[in-house]
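A.,

Following up on our hallway conversation. Structure tokens first:
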């Protein structure tokens, strides 16, 4: 092999190593962002202060409307006590049954707190083992579908 060919092969190998290093660096930089996106709540509902807060993202306006109506019904028609900070984002995790989620909102009690992430949902309640909490768990599973893990936890 000539000296010129050896230099050319060494340069190509160096460029390949540099390209792999850049690709690894770009991939590693994207991982924390993906993890943060997955851990952020995509839907949150809080029952407090005589009102209900709806916050996060839903896929469509129909789901947003059903949830806001369910919250207003829970409050005896007092829609001004419903804080609706829901954004319509087609990429939001789906709600399989918005009516079931609206029934959960009506069932909820002061202090309850729901968080939905892409693959799980949890509801903090006063008594995780009472009948109301078990009914809430069934409504959550229906609302989010069988692919979403549902947990009922004790309020702090």
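Then the amino acids I'd put at each of the 156 positions:
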């Amino acid at each position: 092999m000539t000296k010129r060919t050896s230099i050319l092969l060494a340069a190509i190998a160096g460029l390949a190593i540099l390209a792999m290093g850049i690709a690894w660096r770009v991939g590693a930089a994207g991982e924390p962002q993906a993890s943060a996106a997955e851990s952020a709540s995509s839907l949150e509902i809080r029952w407090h202060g005589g009102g209900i807060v709806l916050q996060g993202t839903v896929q469509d306006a129909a789901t947003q409307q059903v949830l806001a109506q369910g919250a207003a019904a829970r409050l005896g028609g007092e829609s001004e006590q419903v804080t609706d900070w829901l954004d319509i984002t087609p990429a939001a995790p789906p709600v399989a049954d918005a009516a079931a989620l609206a029934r959960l909102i009506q069932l909820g009690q002061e202090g309850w707190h729901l968080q939905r992430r892409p693959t799980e949902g949890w509801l903090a309640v006063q008594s995780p083992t009472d009948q109301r909490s078990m009914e809430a768990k069934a409504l959550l599973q229906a609302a989010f579908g069988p692919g979403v893990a549902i947990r009922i936890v004790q309020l702090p």
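The first strand starts at residue 43 and ends at 48. Curious whether your intuition agrees with the design.

B.
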